[in-house]
Structure formats: C-alpha cells, structure tokens
Write a structure and sequence with these properties.
Bound molecules: S-adenosylmethionine
Number of helices of chain A: 15
Radius of gyration of chain A: 23 Å
CATH class of the largest domain in chain A: Alpha Beta
Strand order of the largest sheet of chain B: 3-2-1-4-5-7-6
CATH architecture of the largest domain in chain A: 3-Layer(aba) Sandwich
Structural class of chain B: alpha/beta
Number of helices of chain B: 8
Largest sheet of chain A: 5 strands, mixed
Strand order of the largest sheet of chain A: 1-3-2-4-5
CATH topology of chain B: Rossmann fold
Largest sheet of chain B: 7 strands, mixed
Distance between the termini of chain A: 55 Å
Oligomer: heterodimer
CATH architecture of chain B: 3-Layer(aba) Sandwich
Structural class of chain A: alpha/beta
Number of domains of chain B: 1
Shape of chain B: globular
CATH class of chain B: Alpha Beta
Distance between the termini of chain B: 39 Å
Largest interface: A-B, 23 and 18 residues
Chain lengths: 383, 216
C-alpha cells in the first residue's frame, strides 16, 4: 500500500460524510489503446483513488463524471448524479477521439439514476453495468465483462463497518470535545474513549442484531432518533450504565452524581449514533425515508425476462426464468427500495407499491430522486 | 450561483439580491446585439432572464438547460409574457450541442452558466459555439470570472468565503469562477469585439464574433 493512498484513505474515512470532489474528465491508466475498455466512475475523490488502485497494472481509460464529490450510490439516489453528467463526460472528455468502440462500463450502484437507453440514444454509447465494488473490476474485465452473482451484491463487511464506526466517531468527537472542555475539561479524554467505544460496538457488532432490524416495522425511537426494532442501542446503553455502577462500586466510591453524568453523556452519544443507523448500512433503507415502506411489484404481462433487473439489483432479489422468459422476486424481503430495477426495466414492468396500495410509476421514479431528508424532491399526485 | 438553483422558485429574487440588481443592466447591454428575426441560442437559460429579453425583441430563441425545474419556471414566464411563439425550451446540456446544425445561429449567449461547467465542458462549449454560429454571428457571455489582479483576487476571495461555505453546505458544490475567459474564447477561434469587467474584476461581459476567415 503506498503512502499517498494510505493518507488519503485515512483522512477521507474520518471525513466520510463530507463531499470531496475531484477533477472530472479522462484519466489514462497504464497505456490504453483504441480498443481498451472505458470505465466510468463518480468524482468522489476517495472513489477515484480506489478505482485507480484497483486498476493498477491494467490498460484502461477511466472517465470521471461529475457527482458533486459524492459517492456513486448516494449521489445517484439523491439525484446529484444524472444522465446529463454521464453524457457530458462521454462527449466532452475527448474519449470519442481515443477509442474506436462505444462501450462504457458504469458502476452498478449508479443504476438507480442513470438510464442506459437514454445514454445510448443521446451519445451512441452502450452502457454495461459493472460490479458494485472497484476491487472486482480487474476480474470483471478479464471475465469478458461478465458479472458473477457476488459482484452484484452490496456488502457490509467488517472493513466497511469499521470505516463507518470511524466516520461517525470522528465528527461526534470533534463536536462534543469543545463543548465538554467548557463544562468538564477533565473528562475530555474519557469522553473521547466513550464515543469511539460506543461507535465501534454498534457498528462492529452489526451482524449480531441485523436480523432483528427491518425496514418495514415501526421503529422504536424518539422524534427522529432511530433505535430500530431491536432497541439495540438502548440495550447497549443499559450495559454501559451497568458497567458504570459496577465500576464505581468496585473502586469503593459510589456516587449518584458520577452515574448520572456519565449515564447522561453516554445516552447523548448513543442518540447521535442512532440518528440513522440503518441508513448508515448499505443493506437497509434509511429509516428516515418514507420509501422504506414501498414494495417492488412486477407486472407479469409486461415482463419478458430480459434480466436487467437481475443485473442491477444490489441485493440479488431477482431470479429470471430464462425458459419461461419471466422474472420473479424470490428474495423480495432483502429489497432496500433503491429502485434500480424499476428505473432500468425496458418494458416498465416494475413499479413501487405503497402499503396503502398507491402505485408509483417508473417514470416518477426516474424523474424524482430523494433529497437528504429522504423525500422525493417533488411529490407528485399519483393516479 | 448554485445555491440559488437548489430552489428554483426563489432563484430570480435571490440573484437580484446577490447581484444588487446590476445583472439587469448587463443583460440589457448584451441583448442589445440581438435584432428582430434572428436565431438565438441561450446556453444554461435557467429561469429565462436572457431568453425572455431576446424573445421580446422578436428573435427566435432556443433555451437549453439541464435543470427541468428551472425550465418549468422559464416556460411559465414565457407563457405569462405571451412570448411562447418565439421561445423553444429544451432539457439538454452543453454536451449535446453536437446535435445543433453548423452555422445555424445568429447569436449564442450564456449568462452565469460557464462558471458551472467543468474544464472539458467549457472548451467543448466554446468550440461548438463557434461551429453553430453563422459567420459574423455573435457570442455573448456574462459570468463570474477570476480577477486577474492578485490583490483583487484575494479581496474577492475573502468576500466570497461565506457564500462559498453556505453553497457547499447546501448544494455540495462550488462554482469555479472562469479563468482566462477572453483568452479561451480566442483560442476557440472567435474574435473578441468587446470585454468589460466590473470594478472588482470578478464579473465579465464579453462580446465575440465568428470571424470571416474560418470558412472552409
Ligand atoms: C446561474 S443559472 C443562470 C440562469 C440564467 N441564464 C440567468 O442568468 O438567470 C445557470 C444555469 O446553467 C445551467 N447549467 C449548468 N450546467 C449546465 C450544462 N452543462 N449544460 C446546460 N446548462 C447547464 C443550470 O441548470 C442553471 O440553470
């Protein structure tokens, strides 16, 4: 691992929630010629660094499109990474003068927003959906641009969980330390430890309680704090308070004041960490958005089993019966309502249905994206 | 000006406040080059400030923009002003200018849009502007630029910091004031007619023409 990458990785993991844009346009990796593959990614700096690292040693043209410095999934779902941005980089980066073919590989997670057929219509470039993770790119290319089932899946691996723990712990520390140093400066160090401990406990232990989480259920929470169904955070908080009691009894200096102040502080930290626990994972829909109640529905009459849905679903919900030419959703429970399947279906055979039976048509999903608060930017009356 | 675009409904008022109403004068001066019956392209037309001015002069205007919400506002304003027959609005980005015919426009204009383009887009747009302009046709630009003078640049920067921070927080982008715009226009093969900076040196009004000698 080279030093430059290590520093970038560390700094930008600490600042994970801040958009960090880099220059858009063409980057040549190795010595690409007129037949070399063209891979497109977003302009979140860390993503570009990761893709470059993954492609090291290959000859590839990398196109960086404007996603406002935000990672692929978030920018695409939030309407900040659009067809226009892809068209723009294809037409203005000069790539058309460099390669003879017109095949571009897009990151699969952009499928919630970018429409392959529109790109093709406007530019003549044919879109292929690449793997979810940059690390799979070399294998994908060598495999003749075919994805394995694994390459299509989002994961919340240990590494990602640690990154997420750091991404939360750092800003909380930065915000709480100055406040703490005014009121109780001697406790600053303990507070820092507490924040990092709680953040790591919550994220690293995620698989232990993940099964109890569900997007559909009413969440246990206060206002916009989200404890999910299991109330896991509250259990963790209870354990912390218990530890505090045991600790103070053991050192033989029991004081209610001590228990109360640390109990209160740890509650605040737990509350902040619960702001959007499910949304911090790629395997659940954020509990802040109303979209989490939606279900993908399939119109069997329109489906002809082309399998685009299967190709872009990051949760492998679909199975296509190639003989009967029809798709099915045997694993619909895993759905995170990203909408990629609906956006990409060439026959408009998929749509969202709300619990009240309201239908949200593909054209609405294509047009209106979620904003930061998880609302569609424009709410239109459905018919 | 990105910050204003995040809520197109308030865009017009916001821009008036931020530019202290001076933009109107600038746009009036630029559109003075347009005459009746001409074919005009407005790049990044937004809510239609330039488009409507040109349509009022009875020119045939095509306004392009990538933001459908802005275009909706422009369309409403065109309807209100009864200028729909002179105005055609299209949701398309500068990258799609390739679909416009060569030598088909008398005027290509753009207000506050070039500063939102990437380096690549800017070069591409200037090249395409030249191609689609008729010989002798005008390119009219009003935009934020980076002051040449280092001192002014620093003052400009200090004034802009709060705005840049708010913009970043809300829209997660910054506008990159265009550098060396007159030089780049010339590089694209257009001939500068007039350039006018404001006192701070951070705003440009530029008029250029597609010269004679470029005919094949
Ligand atoms: C600050 S507004 C200016 C609007 C209008 N010309 C005015 O002066 O009121 C800039 C406009 O440029 C548009 N724009 C940004 N990038 C563009 C691109 N690549 N192609 C076309 N329009 C673009 C934005 O959507 C926005 O509406």
């Amino acid at each position: 691992m080279n030093l430059h990458y290590l520093i970038v990785y560390l700094v930008e993991t600490l600042l994970r929630f801040i958009p960090i844009p880099c220059k858009t346009g063409l980057i040549k990796i190795g010595n690409p010629d007129s037949n070399s593959p063209v891979i497109l990614t977003c302009n979140y700096h860390l993503t570009v660094e990761k893709v470059r690292r993954a492609l090291d040693g290959m000859d590839v043209n990398l196109l960086v499109a404007n996603s406002r410095g935000i990672n692929v999934w978030c920018s695409a779902a939030g309407g900040l990474f659009t067809n226009h941005d892809v068209v723009s980089v294809l037409k203005t980066s000069g790539i058309e003068e460099i390669v003879d073919h017109r095949n571009v590989i897009l990151p699969q997670l952009a499928a919630t927003s970018i429409e392959g057929n529109i790109i093709q219509k406007k530019t003549g470039w044919k879109v292929t959906w690449g793997p979810v993770y940059a690390d799979d790119l070399p294998h994908f290319i060598k495999n003749n641009f075919k994805k394995t089932v694994e390459m299509r899946k989002v994961k919340f691996s240990l590494v990602q969980r640690v990154e997420m723990a750091v991404a939360w712990a750092f800003p909380i520390t930065v915000i709480m330390i100055p406040i703490m140093s005014i009121f109780w400066s001697s406790a600053v160090f303990s507070l820092t430890l507490l924040i990092w401990f709680l953040s790591f406990s919550i994220f690293v232990s995620f698989p232990l309680y993940a099964d109890y989480l569900s997007s559909e259920d009413k969440r246990i929470g206060i206002a916009f704090f989200d404890f999910s169904r299991s109330g896991f955070h509250l259990i963790l908080w209870g354990i912390v308070v218990l530890c505090l009691v045991i600790y103070s009894v053991l050192i033989g200096d029991f004081s209610w004041r001590f228990i109360f102040s640390w109990g209160f502080i740890s509650l605040i930290v737990v509350l902040i960490l619960s702001l959007d626990l499910m949304g911090s994972t790629p395997v659940y829909k954020s509990s802040l958005t109303e979209d989490r109640f939606l279900k993908v529905a399939l119109d069997k009459n329109k489906c002809n089993g082309c399998g685009f849905c299967e190709q872009v679903c990051p949760r492998n919900c679909f199975e296509v019966d190639r003989n009967r030419h029809i798709a099915a959703m045997p694993e619909a429970v895993r759905c995170v309502q990203c909408g990629a399947c609906i956006v990409q279906c060439p026959f408009n055979a998929l749509y969202f249905r709300s619990p009240e039976g309201e239908i949200i048509l593909p054209q609405t999903i294509r047009k209106f994206k979620l904003n930061l608060m998880g609302k569609r930017l424009v709410k239109v009356k459905e018919n | 000006m990105k910050i204003l675009e995040s809520s197109p409904g308030r865009y017009d008022m916001g821009i008036r406040i931020l530019t202290l109403g001076r933009l109107d004068g600038v746009y009036d001066r630029l559109t003075a080059y347009i005459i009746k019956g001409q074919k005009v392209l407005d790049i990044g037309c937004g809510s239609g400030a330039l488009t409507l001015r040109a349509a009022q002069k009875n020119a045939k205007v095509k306004g392009i923009d990538i933001n459908p919400l802005m275009l909706e506002i422009a369309q409403n304003r065109a309807n209100e002003a009864g200028l729909t027959q002179n105005i055609e609005l299209c949701e398309m980005g500068v990258a799609e200018l390739g679909s416009e015919e060569s030598e088909s426009y008398d005027v290509v204009m753009s207000g506050l849009c070039f500063s939102e383009l990437s380096e690549d887009e800017l070069g591409f747009t200037l090249k395409e502007a030249k191609r689609i302009l008729k010989i002798g046709g005008f390119l009219l630009i009003a935009d934020e630029v980076r002051p040449k003078n280092i001192f002014k640049r620093i003052v400009n920067w200090l004034i802009k910091i709060p705005l840049v921070i708010i913009t970043y927080l809300i829209a997660q982008t910054t506008t990159n004031s265009v550098r060396n715009l007159p030089e780049r226009v010339e590089e694209a093969g257009l001939q500068i007619e007039s350039v006018r900076f404001n006192k701070m040196g951070n705003f440009i009004e530029l008029v250029a023409r597609r010269p004679e000698e470029t005919t094949k």
